[in-house]
Write a sequence for this structure.
C-alpha cells in the first residue's frame, strides 16, 4: 500500500480496520471516517452514546515556574483564571490576529498546563509556543504519550462510570480529573466536540486497544457505536463548534469567527492582542453566520455565497444535519448582511440555490 | 457481490446489458465510499436528463450526493435514455441498500455495443478496487 505508507496511524488503527471502517487520509492521518453509517453513528451520539478514536489529536505540556505566564501569553483566553482541574477553550494567534490553532487548556497544577491541539497543527503549535518562550517554562510536544478516546452522548456517563472509580457527576463541564479507567491511568475530561454530554479520556497508547474494547463492552447495554470522523464533523457542525481550516485559519480573527468569548483583552499582553484591539476599534468586515438551505441542495465547504445575486462570501462547512433533517452550514458574510433571516443563495455546482441565515447553534441539547 | 454478467467502469458504475438495452447503476464499492446517500440528480450538461436524450460514453449523467461528498455519475455506454429510476428521489438510501439491483439509475438503448469492450469484467473491477484501497 504505497499510497498510505506515509500516513500516520493511531494505536487503534488495526482495531478500526478489523471493524471494516472506511479509512481516509485526515490531515496526514489514516483515520476512520465511518464504521457502518455516518447517520446512524451521529444519531447514536444524540440519542445514547458513541465512542471516537481521537488519538491523532496533539498534546503539549507547558511546565515550570512560569508555565502560566507563557500559557497566558500565547493564548487568548485568561489562563490565570483557571483553577486546578479546570479547562477552557482558547485561541493560539499570530501577531496579526489570525489563528494558529484553537486549543483546550487544562490546568493540571500551578506549574503545569496541558494543551489539547489539532492533529495537523501540533508541530506548528509547538514551534509557535516555543518561539515565544522567553519565560522560565518548558514546552514539550507530548502527543506520543497519549491516546485519546471520546465517549459522547446522554449515556456517556453511565458507560464510563462502569469502568472508573472517579466520581463522574462530581466532574463539572469543562473540568477534569486524573484517575483511572479499567485499571489504566487516565485523564478524564468532561469535554467534547459533539454538543452532547461526554468525556474525553487521555490514556497511554499501549492501553488504548484494551480500553477501546472495554468501553464498547460497557456501552453495549446502551447500544454504543464506534463513531468515525464523519459523524464527529456533523455533530460539531450542528453544535456550531469551529473546525480549524474551515471556520478558523491564519486569515480569520476571533471577532470574525464569532469567538469573542475566548478573547480577554483585559488580561494583559498576549500574542495578537494589538491586532485584535485595533480590529475591534475599526470594526470587522465579515462575520461567521449559520444558514439553512431552502432549495434542494447542500451548500458545502468552499461554495460561494451570493447576496442579492452578487458574490458576498463563502461556505466554511456545510452538510445535511442528521438530527435535524435539514441541510445546514456556516458561512462568512459581510457584517451588514450577517443578521438572522437574510435571504442568500449558495452556488451549488454553478447553480444558485436559495438559503437563509439562521440562529446558531443549530442543535442544543436539552439540559 | 459483483455480478459476473455486469460490466464496470473505473469510475465505479456498472452496466447490465440485456438485448439492446443497458441498465446502469453505481457499484457497491461506490456506495460504501460515499456513505449515506441523500440526493440523486440526473443531469446532462446543464439540462435535466430525460428519456430520449442521447448520451455519450464517459459523459456525466448526474451526481450522487452523500452526507460527506458529491460524486459525478459517468455514463458507461453511449445511447438513448429510455428510463430513469425516479423512485430514488424519495428514497436515495436505496442506493446504499441495493446498488446492484433495485437502485439502478438509468436504462439506455445502446448505440454502440462495441464500447462494452472498454469496460471491466467483475474480476477486473474487483482487482482494480482492491488495488485502489
Amino acid at each position: 500500500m504505497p499510497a498510505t505508507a506515509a500516513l500516520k496511524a493511531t494505536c487503534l488503527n488495526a482495531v478500526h480496520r478489523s471493524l471494516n471502517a472506511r479509512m481516509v487520509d485526515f490531515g496526514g492521518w489514516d483515520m476512520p471516517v465511518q464504521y457502518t453509517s455516518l447517520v446512524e453513528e451521529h444519531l447514536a451520539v444524540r440519542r445514547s452514546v458513541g465512542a471516537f478514536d481521537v488519538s491523532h489529536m496533539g498534546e503539549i505540556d507547558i511546565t515550570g515556574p512560569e508555565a502560566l505566564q507563557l500559557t497566558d501569553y500565547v493564548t487568548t483566553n485568561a489562563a490565570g483564571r483557571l483553577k486546578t482541574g479546570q479547562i477552557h477553550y482558547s485561541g493560539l494567534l499570530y501577531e496579526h490576529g489570525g489563528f494558529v490553532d484553537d486549543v483546550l487548556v487544562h490546568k493540571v497544577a500551578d506549574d503545569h498546563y496541558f494543551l489539547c491541539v489539532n492533529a495537523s497543527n501540533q508541530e506548528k503549535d509547538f514551534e509557535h509556543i516555543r518561539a515565544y518562550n522567553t519565560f522560565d517554562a518548558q514546552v514539550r510536544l507530548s502527543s506520543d504519550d497519549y491516546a485519546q478516546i471520546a465517549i459522547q452522548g446522554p449515556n456517556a456517563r453511565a458507560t464510563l462510570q462502569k469502568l472508573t472509580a472517579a466520581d463522574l457527576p462530581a466532574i463539572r463541564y469543562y473540568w477534569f480529573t486524573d484517575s483511572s479507567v479499567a485499571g489504566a491511568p487516565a485523564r478524564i475530561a468532561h469535554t467534547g466536540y459533539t454538543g452532547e454530554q461526554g468525556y474525553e479520556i487521555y490514556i497511554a497508547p499501549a492501553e488504548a486497544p484494551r480500553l477501546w474494547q472495554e468501553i464498547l463492552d460497557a456501552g453495549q447495554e446502551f447500544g454504543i457505536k464506534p463513531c468515525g470522523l464523519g459523524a464527529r464533523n456533523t455533530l460539531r457542525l450542528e453544535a456550531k463548534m469551529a473546525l480549524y481550516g474551515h471556520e478558523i485559519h491564519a486569515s480569520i480573527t476571533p471577532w470574525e469567527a464569532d469567538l469573542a468569548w475566548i478573547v480577554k483583552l483585559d488580561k494583559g499582553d498576549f500574542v495578537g492582542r494589538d491586532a485584535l484591539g485595533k480590529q475591534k476599534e475599526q470594526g470587522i468586515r465579515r462575520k461567521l453566520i449559520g444558514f439553512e438551505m431552502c432549495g434542494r441542495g447542500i451548500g458545502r465547504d468552499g461554495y460561494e455565497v451570493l447576496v442579492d445575486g452578487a458574490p458576498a462570501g463563502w461556505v466554511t462547512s456545510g452538510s445535511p444535519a442528521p438530527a435535524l433533517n435539514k441541510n445546514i452550514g456556516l458561512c462568512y458574510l459581510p457584517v451588514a448582511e450577517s443578521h438572522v433571516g437574510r435571504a442568500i443563495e449558495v452556488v451549488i455546482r454553478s447553480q444558485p440555490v436559495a438559503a437563509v441565515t439562521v440562529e446558531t447553534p443549530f442543535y442544543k441539547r436539552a439540559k | 457481490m459483483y455480478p459476473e454478467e455486469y460490466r464496470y467502469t473505473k469510475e465505479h458504475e456498472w452496466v447490465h446489458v440485456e438485448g439492446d438495452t443497458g441498465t446502469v447503476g453505481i457499484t457497491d464499492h461506490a456506495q460504501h465510499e460515499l456513505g449515506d446517500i441523500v440526493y440523486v440528480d440526473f443531469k446532462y450538461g446543464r439540462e435535466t436528463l430525460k428519456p430520449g436524450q442521447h448520451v455519450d460514453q464517459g459523459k456525466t449523467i448526474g451526481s450522487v450526493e452523500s452526507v460527506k461528498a458529491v460524486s459525478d455519475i459517468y455514463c458507461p455506454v453511449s445511447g438513448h435514455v429510455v428510463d430513469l429510476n425516479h423512485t430514488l428521489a424519495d428514497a436515495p438510501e436505496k442506493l446504499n441498500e441495493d446498488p446492484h439491483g433495485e437502485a439502478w439509475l438509468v436504462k439506455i438503448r445502446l448505440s454502440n455495443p462495441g464500447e462494452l469492450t472498454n469496460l471491466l469484467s467483475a474480476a477486473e473491477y474487483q482487482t482494480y478496487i482492491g488495488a485502489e484501497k
Chain B has one domain: 7-127.
